[in-house]
């Protein structure tokens, strides 16, 4: 009988573990890397203005941008994006007013704008879809805007002046400011219907002015003549148009001032702004821009 195998040698005793190094108290753990600020893009529901001069139905870019089911007989003239009280924008998801959200989130505007304007945007972004000539607009300066707002806040919704920047998406025609004194005198000489609306007294004062004249007297004369022209009664305007139609039917185009009339008036119900085109408008083409300072007069029209 064989002897049993010798037992295996004993395993070596493990060495005592080194004492864990105590953490250094003078070094703070590295902070986590900064996370990028999350910016949410929220959709707005913007106000639509149904002015008579707007394009109708789905022919209007305004109606299409507003994502509405347009009424084919209704004009869709302007799309407003901003905080104006006559047409404030709201958020599409919860209906909150844009102005209320900006008041709670002033960082969205930046400190300088937020400090001055609070929860209001300092501009009103509009998209216009124009079918015919707009009404003439008078833009006050800041001082006059404050007076008008204080006197008639229901009409003048805020006390700000109205400088404008217009960007032409398609070809667009703009009449801005007044003609020169010599051009005005030429109109009075050759278009007696205008003289009848302005009045003989103011027409005479205009005819006596010189191109180099200036100062408060000239301003007063122009203001008086313009006010009489713009406030003439409907009957007076209709009578003047009828006289103009009759005269144009018997006179050659060479008699017309400044070659400003490109079409012959066709009926007694014709609208002057639809029948006459001033050839020296600023005419922005696509992607061109025109700026209107305040105070200023302007009229938008299209071909």
UniProtKB/TrEMBL annotation:
The keyword rRNA-binding does not apply. Pathway: Nucleotide-sugar biosynthesis; GDP-alpha-D-mannose biosynthesis; alpha-D-mannose 1-phosphate from D-fructose 6-phosphate: step 1/2. Coiled coil: none annotated. GO terms for cellular component: cytosol. GO terms for biological process: carbohydrate metabolic process; GDP-mannose biosynthetic process. Residues 42-178 form the Phosphomannose isomerase type I catalytic domain. It comes from the Eukaryota. Gene3D superfamilies: Jelly Rolls. Its EC number is 5.3.1.8. Residues 197-254 form the Phosphomannose isomerase type I helical insertion domain. The keyword Metal-binding applies. Residues 1-11 have a biased composition (Pro residues). PANTHER family: MANNOSE-6-PHOSPHATE ISOMERASE. This is mannose-6-phosphate isomerase.
